[in-house]
Amino acid sequence: MTTTEQAAHAEHGHEHAHAHEDLGFLQTYVFSVDHKVIGIQYAVTGLLFLLFGFGLMMVMRWQLAYPFQPIPIIGGLLGDTRAPGGIMLPEFYNQLGAMHGTIMVFLGVVPLAVGGFGNFVLPLQIGAPDMAFPKLNMASYWSFFLGGVVMLASFVVPGGAANSGWTSYAPLSVIATTGQTMWLVGMIFLITSSLLGSVNFIVTTVQLRAPGLSFFRLPFFVWAQLVTSFLLLLAFPPLEAAGVLQLMDRVAGTSFFMPSGLVVGDAALEISGGGSPLLWQHLFWFLAHPEVYVLILPAMGIVGEILANNTRKPIWGYRVLVASVIFLGFMSFVVWAHHMFMTGMGTTMSSFFQTTTMIISIPSVVILSAFLLSLYGGSIRYTVPMLFALAFLPMFAIGGLTGLPLGLAAPDIHLHDTYYVIGHFHYVVAPGTVLALLGGIYYWFPKATGRKMNDLLGRIHFWGSFVTINIVFFPMLIQGLSGMNRRMADGGLEYTMNQDVLVWNTVISWGAWGLALFQLPFIFNFFWSIKKGEEVGANPWNATTLEWSAPSPPPHGNFTTPPSVHRGPYEYNVPGVEADFVMQAEADGSQAEPAKA
Amino acid sequence: MGDWLGLPVQASAHAGEIDQMIILIHYLMFILFIGWGIYFVWVLIRFRASANPRADYTGVTSHTSSYLEIAVAAIEAVLLIGFAIPAWANRVNEFPPEDESTVVHMIARQFEWHAHYPGADGRFGRRDISHITPTNVVGLDRSDPAAADDVVSINRMNLPVDKPAILYLSTQDVIHSLGIAEMRVKQDVIPGMEIPMWFIPTRAGDYQINCSQLCGLGHYRMKAEVTIQSQAEFDAWLAEELALSQ
Fold first, then answer.
1. Looking at this predicted complex, what is its ipTM?
2. A8 CA to chain B: closest CA distance, Å?
3. CB contact under 8 A, A488 and B219
4. Residue pLDDT, tens place only, A290-315
5. What is the DSSP code string of B151-177?
6. Cα-Cα-Cα-Cα dihedral sign, residues B167, A403, A473, A52
7. B217 and A373 in contact by Cβ < 8 A?
8. To 5 degrees, how large is the angle CA B224–CA B230–CA B236?
9. What residues in B contact A572, CB-CB < 8 Å?
10. Per the CATH hierarchy, to which homologous superfamily does domain A2-257+274-549 belong?
11. What's the predicted TM-score (pTM) here?
């Protein structure tokens, strides 16, 4: 088996090299239309933005732990408009806050989870030679890239970057400095990118599945990406429209979100007026709630793949999982106003949104239960990807459970806009999604590079991150219950009621810097393993899905002979079959033969 | 459990009701998490590869998880219908009569809270942006007879204890949010709207309003002192403020 694969691999490598010569460097590595190259571009760019967004947070954490004390190391480099004498100005803190959120969500997690994993893995898992629209795919990446450049550039315009929160509530955002205009332009590029990408994913999944790959034989990851794409496609256009409207309010003198009679600094604002600030909030959250599921569903997809592979059994309740993900997708469009309970909502509206919010928690509980039950009866291998996938389960559980008191309007009176909210959604997105995405990197790295990442460094990375990330986020729940508000440039120092929980600010900050330290083994491992990692064949994890039937790394066109599919995605330890696993592409009655690579 | 969760003291009539819900939900969360957690740890040890070399294709066949999911749904339905919706309806619909309440107009602006009291006549003087000056930032029209005994205090709101308070919230510039943690009240102040909120302070003492919606560079320090006092002390304070403003 090994020799056959290696021979096939060498042959493909040869073809690969030829293809590169034909296209030239720029078209192969920069302006590529190959889904794998675009996927890697997305993933690496996304990882860099995650690191940058984390960097912004580490500076903020200094200010929260040691308010208005000179920032060490980089304090002197920030300049007088941000931190005169190294002491952070509140307006710079607000820029960091707004940009941390924007960058982590729109430039970090979504590009990595959807653009990166979706692009690289999805066509391989459905046995397609590429995405349905390769040029659209390239346009999607470059639109994202431009959006990122605009966002980064906004830091150096007069007044600095956007400083009205990642939510950009009007009128604050409309009267804000130039950075907000850049934010809106950047968002329009990013949204366009997501729309181009999501259309492509949907068409590819519907049209380019290998023969025999029916919808109920799709790996769970593909289902998760498909539902995610529908969310992006349907939820982003309202925000794109809202972004254009806010841009008009800022540059063309319209007042879509600006009511009449505003007074700023004792002077009446020169605007036409008549608009509604709540309209912005509705349009924003109509995107931004489905966006939460855009962040979490790909992570669930990754976790499903890794769990099946490392328990050596099918994931439990596949059809229930698929139904739950689809239901979650639908429901995510009718819960948005639970972010707005405090805006003066009446009983009818709030009852509707509380009810939908409670309903949406059910499929989440079902998905989590199915994953937990999948472990029962397994033969669990504690590989590095598996550690990350397992950690996702309790972390997502905390994230989900802490959503319950926020989803009911009356308890939300106390918890709204406190650190409880910050703790809640970070548990979903950081210890939840980001850990799952890191697991996905360890899992598919051998497919992308032909080499495994170092195991020991991976374990150090996992355990260090798992402990420190909880030191960062758990105390936020404690601070929030005591009523401490979010988005305060002095970390709550000003208020007498916060004094008892201020001590956690220091603990959290040191936790965050510790978390940064434990990313160093990962960064080193990532680059070192590309050159020096253990070389592996097509299927190093003994997995079943189609991507493991292609060589590692797959050549242009992915599969030498178009694969056909003969069974469901997770046929591990099938009763009556001696082999530990049977790949989807294996023809019936040929389990003993090597996979057709 | 309220102490254990670190909730602030309860200083309003409805605070106990809000806390009851927060506590019930946290019980549910702890039970689910600890239950899942025990199963999770057990299954990770029991089904490690060395203890169970060949996995079982079928896995779990019992319906326990379905019953658990139905139970969670049922508990959520009870919380929703039995507690959350009535509590919310009470907050936003069941306003006490104004003549039995202390009525205050709270005007928010970057980064101050202005409490406008109607005075002895119970009538609020007219406010208009054309009257705004650096010394009259709420734009109170002093030529309006109703304004004669009005009191406007900056970053301070006093209220008599055990008497309903109705606050009408408005803002001059951006969105702010009036939160008093001990009273378990929070209400966004939306430009172009006047939004009422109410509560009954039940515990004399000093508290703070903290702005609970990002409103600009001074958001972190946009606070106001709140004093809950006896009716007599409150009346004396109001008279003193009136004397100062004339």
1. 0.96
2. 31
3. yes
4. 999 999 999 999 999 999 999 999 99
5. EEEESEEEEETTS-EEEEEEESSS-EE
6. negative
7. no
8. 75
9. 55, 57
10. Cytochrome c oxidase-like, subunit I domain (1.20.210.10)
11. 0.94
